[in-house]
Amino acid sequence: MSTPSFAADYSPADLRDLKLEPTGAPARVIAGDPQTAEHVLAVRDGLEVGVWEVTPGEFASTKPAMGEVMQFLSGEGSITHADGSVTRIAPGTVLALEPGWSGIWRVTATVRKVYTIYDAPVAARGTAGTTDAAAPAADVAAASEASETLGNTADI
Length: 156
Prior knowledge:
Elements: H1 12-17, E1 21-24, E2 28-32, E3 36-44, E4 47-54, E5 57-63, E6 66-81, E7 86-89, E8 94-97, E9 101-119, H2 140-149
Antiparallel strand pairs: 1-3, 2-5, 3-4, 4-9, 5-9, 6-7, 6-8, 6-9
């Protein structure tokens, strides 16, 4: 009898070509008709990892009770954070968003990212500031709710 595999590996090309499931529009569309799709790779103990995509448009996003670390695989645009700072969306950009983050996404070419959403420690909820480390679930239900807010991960 063989030992089950507890690992899955993906190259950047695998993630760019991965088939995603449509998840609709972000919850707070400002302009255009952005549509989202995603593929969840893993969910466990307050952590969700997946691939998310959004078509061009503009929408507001918030992360009240979760943080996210994301790396963009493709696309172009910008994210304006509540403090007025801006992160340029481009392949290879990594962005970390702390619980409590909010901002506006402006997508000019379809964006695809790999993301990890994590629960905020109870003491940090509602008190965390924005972290923009350009160099993003309270529980699985909150991660799903966040995914809907983000254009299934538009908040993602």
